[in-house]
Amino acid sequence: MRYSALMTDLYELTMLAGYLEHDMHEKPASFDLFFRKNPFKGSYAIFAGLEPALRYLEQLRFTEEDLTYLKSLGIFRPRFLEYLREFRFRCKVAAPAEGTAVFANEPLVTVEGNLAEAQLVETALLNIINFQTLIATKAARVQQAAGDGVVVEFGLRRAHGPDGGLGVARAAFIGGVRSTSNTWAGQVYGIPTRGTHAHSWVMAFEDELEAFRAYAKVFPDDVILLVDTYDTLKSGIPNAITVARELREAGHEMRGVRLDSGDLAYLSRETRRMFDEAGFPEVKIVASNELEEYVIQSIRSEGGRIDIYGVGTELATAGGEGGGALGGVYKLVRYNGEARLKVTQDIAKATLPDRKQLLRLMNSSGGFLQDVICREGERLEPGVTVYDPTNPSRRKKLAASISYEEVRSVVMENGEVVTALPDLETSADRCADQLRRLPEGTLRLYNPHIYKVSISPGLHDLREQLMAKHET
Q1: Which of 87, 163, 208, 386 is deepest in the core (most CB within 10 A)?
Q2: Kind and range of the H or E run holding 338
Q3: How far is Cα 46 from Cα 60, in angstroms, rounded to an integer?
């Protein structure tokens, strides 16, 4: 999908015009994209949206139509419009791979190049990365709550517009929800599609059994019947069992039934009992109806027997406490050869200056212990003291023996992608592996273990120096 160069806030363009007038536009600059608070009151996020972000950067061009519109605003000089006509993105970009577990205050995407190019892309990068990372995180939480159950993304009709629906399916796949009801996403991304039928199908026939038989006649090897149009246990399930027997006699097997209302824990237990007693233990039970991670966890804790969860609204809109939006920001950290710091009385909102590397410490079995943000080129020595970025009085000494890996890599040089971008299946597998390697308690929905992110001595000292400089 090609994004317009005008997918930006107006102030990005006014700043560019100002940089050009003051001959600042070619000065070297570095920006970091990060978020300050883990979403959903959780302990982690799942990084997503990198590939569409890189495609946007590669294809960034101002068309004649764009320039005509900008001219019509009456605020830009001809020199600036000519500058935009030849505009190309030529920066370097570093980022984690999609599907990587990431945490608050860590530099996720770093854009380094000239000031104008690095500045212009702020809004679009935040739009793409914030949304897809938020949805991938929600999907991971929902899939974790479902345990061995399968989750299907059902959110297209509640998503924030057509493009939002497409992005939801992509990001949810990375987070672990590996099928969707969205056939457009199936076409574009190759995501497996699933679906049943609506209540209107049943209501269009004279009675429920006739409706079930008619559907089974059309799709004899792919029958999943919605059984709660009238009375789930007295009508829907008995009629579905009748059709299951008729299918078997004809050499076919029913795949499942769907529950879309009522007490899903109780109804799924009774549905399982009735099908098992009728000789159909392989029939799957699908559930939908405003599901999200806490509801799924509750259903399972009450002995529910659901095999497949169709999760729609809450996934597509990233609903729930602490959801709704990821508070990602994009801050200048280096300009014209000098480290830059956003100064604030709230240390939690002070930025981390200069070029950085993000290191992940691991135990001997590959489990993640904590992350440390260092200055570029700084060595992380065993036994060194590291600091909480939001409260430097909290500090800890690293173990005498440590192993670590760099979380990020350079993915774009001079505006061109320089690494192979993995397919969605690989990114989803990475996400599952990352979640398995997180410390115990990190995945809890309630009061999770907070994964530690620290800053190195060099980065801590640099920030202190810059803060002291601005105080004088």
Answers
A1: 386
A2: strand 338-339
A3: 26
Scanning the structure block, which residue is given the tokens 């192993």?
Answer: 403
Q: What are phi and psi of 418, to 5 degrees?
A: -120, 15
| 120 vs 57: CA distance, rounded Å | 10
Instruction: Give the model confidence (pLDDT) of 167-187 as tens digits.
Output: 999 999 999 999 999 999 999
CA–CA dist 221, 255 (Å, integer):
8
CB neighbour burial string for 432-451, b if at least 16 within 10 angstroms, e if fewer: bebbebbbeebbebeebeeb
Alpha-helical (H) ranges within 250-317 are 264-277, 293-301, 313-316
CB count in 10 Å sphere of residue 115: 21
Cα–Cα distance, 223 to 213 (Å, whole number): 10
**Residue whose entry in the numeric block shows the structure tokens 């809450």:** 314
DSSP 8-state symbol, 447: S
Quote the CA–CA distance of 212 and 133 in Å, as a whole number. Answer: 40
The phi, psi pair for 289, rounded to 5°, reads: 95, 80
Contact assessment for residue 395 and residue 383, using Cβ atoms and an 8 Å cutoff: no
pTM over cut 0.85: yes
Residue range 227-257, pLDDT digits in tens: 999 999 999 999 999 999 999 999 999 999 9
Extended beta strands in 236-275, E state: 256-259
Domains and CATH numbers, the chain: 10-135+323-471 (3.20.140.10), 195-283 (3.20.20.70)
Which residues neighbour 437 within 8 Å (Cβ) at sequence distance 6 or greater?
362, 366, 367, 368
* Closest to 432 (Cα-Cα) out of 208, 196, 201, 177: 177
Q: Which residues, at least 6 apart from 193, have a Cβ–Cβ distance to it below 8 Å?
A: 179, 180, 181, 182, 183, 185, 186
